[in-house]
Amino acid sequence: HVQLVESGGGSVQAGGSLRVSCTASTLNLGDYCMGWFRQAPGKERQRVASEALFDRSGYYADSVKGRFTFSRDNAKNTVHLQMNSLNSEDTGMYYCAADPVCSWYSSTSLWGRGTQVTVS
């Protein structure tokens, strides 16, 4: 049973914006460290933005700093990734992840099925 569900992906022109979202029905995301990852065909999955255990500003990959913003809507048990000034390098499948201690790719990490983002 998939506990994380992403939405908001789509096709957008370079320079445009998109917001992807992640929610869960069977767990409280407030109990987890949350992150966003993306994977392009034939490439490794990479972390693009996430919360950090000891840094309240969180983590952003160098390639997205200043363009992407992670946020939470606790009332809706949802996390968002606002993506601005998109370029072709941002194309990929975007995955939501949850982990109790921001230990990504560990046995404790939960993953969604992804939402596709295509920038042309």
What would your notes on this structure say?
The protein is mostly beta strands. The strands form two sheets. Strands 2, 4, 5, 6, 9, 10 and 11 form a seven-stranded mixed sheet that branches. A four-stranded antiparallel sheet has the order 1-3-8-7, with no helix packed on it. The chain has no helices and eleven strands. Helix content is about 0%, strand content about 50%.
Strand tally: 11
What is the chain-wise order of helices and strands? EEEEEEEEEEE
Largest sheet: 7 strands, mixed
Residue fraction in strands: over 45%
Overall pLDDT level: 96
Our count of helices gives: 0
Structural class: mainly beta
Bulk shape: globular
Distance between the termini: 33 Å
Helicity, in percent? under 10%
Q: Mind telling me the C-alpha Rg?
A: 13 Å
Oligomeric assembly = single chain
Low-confidence runs (pLDDT<50, min 5 residues)? none
